[in-house]
Amino acid sequence: MKKIWIASAGLALSACVTINIYFPAAAAEKAADKIIEEVWQTQKADQPAATEPVVKETK
């Protein structure tokens, strides 16, 4: 019976452990801006030009 109490107490204590990870807000915002800028550049490069210049040949 004593082993059950010890096991239960150990389980209860381990269930109460919380790990918090904090990221600096400025660094996270800078990284997000960089990722957004890279995505926009990639999308612009993938899209063909909307209008191509018209070249008129004269003879």
Gross geometry: rod-shaped
| Assembly status | single chain
Uncertain stretches of 5 or more adjacent residues: none
What is the element string, with H for helices and E for strands?
A: HH
Strands, count: 0
> Approximately what portion of the residues adopt beta-strand conformation?
under 5%
| Total DSSP helices | 2
Mean pLDDT, all residues = 79
What percent of residues adopt helix (DSSP H or I)?
55-70%
Largest sheet properties: none
What do these coordinates show?
It is a single chain. With 59 residues, this protein is an all-alpha fold. Helices cover 61% and strands 0% of the residues. The protein has 2 helices and no strands. It is rod-shaped and about 105 Å long.
Summarize it.
With 59 residues, this protein is mainly α.
Summary tags:
0% strand; mainly alpha; 59 residues; rod-shaped; single chain
Topology:
Layout: H1 2-15, H2 25-46
